[in-house]
Amino acid sequence: MKIITNKNVLLIVCLTAGHFLFAQIDKKATKETQNLYRNLKTISKTHILFGHQHALEYGHGWSNEPNRSDVKSVTGSHPAVVGIDFSDFSGRSDEQIRQAKETLRKNVIETYERGGVTTVSWHFNNPASEGGFYWKDGISKASMALIKPGGSHHDQYKEILKSIADFAHSVKAKNGTLAPMIFRPYHEFDGDWFWWGKSHTSREDFIAVWQFTVSYLKDTLGVHNFIYAFSPDNQFNSESEYLERYPGDNYVDMLGMDDYGDFGRDGKYDLATGLEKLIIFSDLAIKKKKLAAFTETGLESIPNEKWWTEVLLKTLKSQNLQLAYVLVWRNDSTSPTHYYAPFPGQLSEKDFVRFYEDPFTLFEKDLKNIYDREFKLE
């Protein structure tokens, strides 16, 4: 059992409008989604949730095994935040889409019923050209201009969003409630590797697509179990650079960042710069009364034996950051080197257990009633 000191305090969220300042952009959000939003804000003031991408779908050397994750194999607990992806919801055959939805539906519902949190990335296959979600010279089209309102592929984009909405309406637990999800579209938009990247998309077109996406999902398609996250890569050094493609406070619930480069990628560490960037959007979220999270990071193959405590944890505990969660990338099922969380026998396993045992970090076993008005940490 993980021991958490000074945490056994009942945290009651006041739902009176005059007393609660951190309101979601979706005024019709389900009760559970509203509670999650508020409780994540409470958590971020004193702790941080740990997340892992594709944690339950597969891991190092395995796939599709019930109630298994590499994180659980090491610590005894699943991660508090589980990452999934809508990548197979378009650009696939109807049967492939159906199978992908069924797999993820089960994943999301089971995570919700255990008390964990789901976050959704979207490696969106280009709807107007071949090339998948990456930008491929000579193949990919700059399609944000084509899917925005008035664009040649706008109607097709609406159909894709309807498919996402259908999924959002389907993740219903045994008690009849819908599982909330943190939806993080068009991530790392300040880089050039995706077709929605900065050099392929004007600022105006990016903002137009983002605003339409959020409005269409919540106002037209009736999706009320999403929290909307905005997450560039680490290509910024100031608040104004961070906000360069920001679609506005009415279209974002959570501010984030994906940053591998400052945290050991290719053996290069610049922790001071990484921390400065975390401070920029953490402080901005406090000012804007939004959530903040370290939406992606990690060190492939984790060759640094003490990366978890000496690099990640030390950074996260610095400078009064208010981050709801930190998520590391996936553990590929077949690659011997593509993994970002430890598994039994991996070099950093013991240090990860120390990271898990630190009172600051929270995993799924530490959460109780995160979807309730009255939330407590145990």
UniProtKB/TrEMBL annotation:
<feature type="signal peptide">
    <location>
        <begin position="1"/>
        <end position="23"/>
    </location>
</feature>
<dbReference type="GO" id="GO:0016985">
    <property type="term" value="F:mannan endo-1,4-beta-mannosidase activity"/>
</dbReference>
<feature type="binding site">
    <location>
        <position position="260"/>
    </location>
    <ligand>
        <name>substrate</name>
    </ligand>
</feature>
<keyword id="KW-0119">Carbohydrate metabolism</keyword>
<dbReference type="GO" id="GO:0006080">
    <property type="term" value="P:substituted mannan metabolic process"/>
</dbReference>
<dbReference type="InterPro" id="IPR000805">
    <property type="entry name" value="Glyco_hydro_26"/>
</dbReference>
<keyword id="KW-0964">Secreted</keyword>
<comment type="similarity">
    <text>Belongs to the glycosyl hydrolase 26 family.</text>
</comment>
<dbReference type="InterPro" id="IPR022790">
    <property type="entry name" value="GH26_dom"/>
</dbReference>
<feature type="active site" description="Proton donor">
    <location>
        <position position="188"/>
    </location>
</feature>
<keyword id="KW-0326">Glycosidase</keyword>
<feature type="active site" description="Nucleophile">
    <location>
        <position position="296"/>
    </location>
</feature>
<dbReference type="GO" id="GO:0005576">
    <property type="term" value="C:extracellular region"/>
</dbReference>
<feature type="domain" description="GH26">
    <location>
        <begin position="31"/>
        <end position="365"/>
    </location>
</feature>
<dbReference type="InterPro" id="IPR016714">
    <property type="entry name" value="MANB/E"/>
</dbReference>
<dbReference type="Pfam" id="PF02156">
    <property type="entry name" value="Glyco_hydro_26"/>
</dbReference>
<feature type="binding site">
    <location>
        <position position="193"/>
    </location>
    <ligand>
        <name>substrate</name>
    </ligand>
</feature>
<dbReference type="InterPro" id="IPR017853">
    <property type="entry name" value="GH"/>
</dbReference>
<keyword id="KW-0732">Signal</keyword>
<feature type="binding site">
    <location>
        <position position="123"/>
    </location>
    <ligand>
        <name>substrate</name>
    </ligand>
</feature>
<keyword id="KW-0378">Hydrolase</keyword>
<protein>
    <recommendedName>
        <fullName>Mannan endo-1,4-beta-mannosidase</fullName>
        <ecNumber>3.2.1.78</ecNumber>
    </recommendedName>
</protein>
<feature type="site" description="Plays an important role in maintaining the position of the catalytic nucleophile">
    <location>
        <position position="187"/>
    </location>
</feature>
